Amino acid sequence: MKNITLLIAMLFAFAAKAQESYPGKHPELLVGKQVKVITNMVEKYGYGNFYTDESMLKTYIEDPQKRATNYTDLLDKTFTVVSAGPVEMGHSKLQLKAANGETMYYNLNTKLAFNYPFEVIGGLTIPAEYYCEEITQSTFDNSTIYESNPALGVMLRREITPGKPDLSSITIFVFMEHNIKPQTTGTLILENNKTVVFNARMIAQHISAKLFKYQFSVIPSAKEIELLKNNKILGVKIGDKIAPIQGGNKTKNVFACLVTKK
Q1: Contact at 8 Å (CB) between 72 and 156?
Q2: What residue ranges do the domains of the chain occupy?
Q3: Phi, psi of 251 (to 5 degrees)
Q4: Rounded to an integer, what distance in angstroms lies between the CA atom of residue 78 and that of residue 96?
Q5: Nearest CA to 180 among 228, 98, 237?
Q6: Using one digit for the tens of pLDDT, what is the confidence trace for 51-108?
Q7: Which residues contact 77 (CB under 8 A, 6 or more apart)?
Q8: Bridge partners of 41?
Q9: Which end is more exposed in the chain, N or C (fewer Cβ atoms within 10 Å of the end residue's Cβ)?
Q10: Would the pTM count as exceeding 0.85?
Q11: Strand order of the sheet with strand 211-218?
Q12: Inter-residue contact 73 to 61 (CB < 8 Å)
């Protein structure tokens, strides 16, 4: 299992850097920070959302065929984030300045971290209370239900009903290019060589010719809740296949907030 954990960590090292540097709804956290453009894992498509003008109409060194910036024109470049515009329609305009004085703009999606291309040099500290913003509250009959956004492939849920034990659950959504036989067990692979083995019914959905979606709902024990509060989820093992999970650090911190809800 140690080798499996190492493999996942290596495969998603670049994605993890970007995910942990992603400010979400708070782009102002980036102002004054130095950011480095890292691989977006889709090299052939180049980088989108980089512009030379404040109106964000002129793509930076555009490749007409890709309608994006060539991969090699941005990879490993560093910038200082000069300003972050207000969040409007789920986006914020970042003004970037290179060491040579060159200025450009990046259209930041504040809802989805997919293809977010930056690593914050020195790291990005996100206040704990910001993770709580990822949790919604609703009611059903006599129960209060808290749920997180499932965008990262993990949805956290807590149900509180007066007179009954609190019920916490984790729903895992993974996509694979493998048609896996129905499984009743799986393993959450965490950092620090920790694992959570779970029993759950697998729900499979054939998305396209080569893509399958698998879903599990897990009810962790008190001991497992402590593990999940303190260790990032790196991936999930189903049968002999492994699917990495992005945004494990965010999931860990959202879970830590979720279990404090009353």
Answers
A1: no
A2: 24-125, 129-258
A3: -60, -40
A4: 9
A5: 237
A6: 999 999 999 988 887 788 988 899 999 999 999 999 999 999 999 999 999 999 999 9
A7: 36, 37, 98
A8: none
A9: C
A10: no
A11: 135-140, 143-148, 154-160, 167-176, 211-218, 203-208
A12: yes
